[in-house]
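Changelog-linked ticket: inosinic acid example.
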Amino acid sequence: MNTYNINDDIAEVLLSAQEIDAIVTRLASDIDRDYPTPHKRLLLVCILKGSIVFMGDLMKKVHRPVEIDCMKVSSYSHTVSTGELKISLDLTRKDLPDIDILLIEDIIDSGKTMARLTALLKDRGATSVRCMSLLDKPSRREVNYTPDYLGTVIPDKFVVGYGLDYDEKYRALPYIGVLKPEIYENT
Ligand code: IMP
Ligand code: MG
């Protein structure tokens, strides 16, 4: 029988499941350390869809109370304007006084999406807006932006797995890897 194995499409594993787990444990303890007052509301916002696996693992390791919500956002890459943010799913509650927001992101690339979203949520009155990103490709940056919390820097390679996709595939891989070039060439 000839079964398809998506692991065969991966050229190189950049971060193993075990390495990711250690990073996520460290990031969760950063949250407990930096948001120590349990009665102050902390909202973790999962940036869909790439952060869904990271968010799920991260929130299980946090000990202080957290609220969760999701947003789906993207920035228009064809424009230089800084105001262009496309929101296809917004927060359930848009009034945000007395809430600390921590945006949970899979990867920072140009930096446009997180820079714009942070400004928008501050405008809506959140007490604080920070970002925790699992990955960062600083060599790709187009705007001045640094995430407040970072898992690890990676080289300028297109990565998949642990929530990250290529053409909506590979999100379910338990590790982060680089695709074989022929996968791009065949599509
Ligand atoms: P930016 O920082 O505004 O350019 O947008 C970052 C978004 O681009 C991430 O949230 C991902 O959805 C996507 N992205 C950037 N680099 C990669 C990658 O290597 N693999 C998969 N998605 C990526
Ligand atoms: Mg994303």
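Closing comment: Example verified and attached. The beta strands are 10-15, 41-47, 67-75, 85-89, 99-108, 128-136, 149-153, 159-160, 176-179. The mean pLDDT is 93.
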